[in-house]
Amino acid sequence: MRAFLLCAALAAALPVSASAAEARPKLAILDFAANGASKELASAAGGLAANELDRMAVFQVVTADAIRTMLAFEKQRQMLGCAEAGCMAEIGGALGVDWLVSGKVTKLGASAGMPETFSLDLTLTNVRKAQREGSVIETARTEAELVQRAGKAAQKLVAKILAGRSGKLVVSAGEAGAVVKVDDQVKGTTPLRGPVALPAGPHTLTVEKKGFVAYQKDVQVDPGKLVEERVTLVPSPDFVREYESRQKKLRLGAWISTGVAAIGIASAVALQVSASSLYGNETTPGTFLYARAKLQSGVEQDAGGTNFREQASKLKSDIEGRQTLSYVAGGLGGIAAIAATYFWIAGEDPNRYSGFAEPSARLDVAPVPGGAVAAATIKF
Fold it and tell me: What is the rounded average pLDDT for all residues in the chain?
């Protein structure tokens, strides 16, 4: 009967929606025991552990404070008089939860040259199976250090539960080659090959690239869901200046080499056309083939005094010269075309980061009757 009343009271005290109740397992955190340490230290460690578990937004967390509002402190302490899994399961069953977190803060005094130390022992009990699922022990030299480690210890304690309740994170960034980290672990570089599978709960996303301000954000991954995070990296002013200077040079080289390639190829074509016209045919006077045909027919000179042998020799020399020049121009044009291709591929838009202007400030002062009005303009 007492367990039934306790469950009913706790259900009324917790503002959890029906859908959230179905999706998230229930986890209760009991008061941490103090073993040689102060009750205040045990309470602080328990509070931080509870806050961290609640921040994950994966569990319905029933804190020790909520339990105390339903029960007298002495009754709760009597319930916590056992540490065995079976006894803990009975407590969890009375609270109507799936998991139970208990803890103990121990203080070890300095002795035999060893400094004073503090330890936090957390235990996770599976209420339905009535068995201990895991434990975490953290040690510290000071009370402050121990309290700081309480949140991380709580994360480690429930890692096994979260592993079976995973989601996926998609990270998209406009910058290629940026290093993507989740909880300080490298997951790859942008663009990532696919979603990153993560345990449900909060995670710290960090995206870094040299020359850019590091992007950092806490993202919530829900079980069985896909979360997309669009990242915009902000370049530093020095990076923008170096980028624009380099890209302007590459763009200038691209235009110059493109122009040289066009002129070289056009010149090669024009020289080939002119050489072909000089080569001509046997019926067009003034061409090499016409002069050679006359010589083959035994005519050395026409009535106008044109020496066909001299003309043929001169035309042959001109044709060969123009062909040679066309090959040179074509070769230069081809080399310039290769260079232009490289510059266009290697280069990017010099104005790509023009939207990230350097901060500037301006103060305008306008005289008015009886004084002056100042207006400050700040641009980012």
Answer: 82
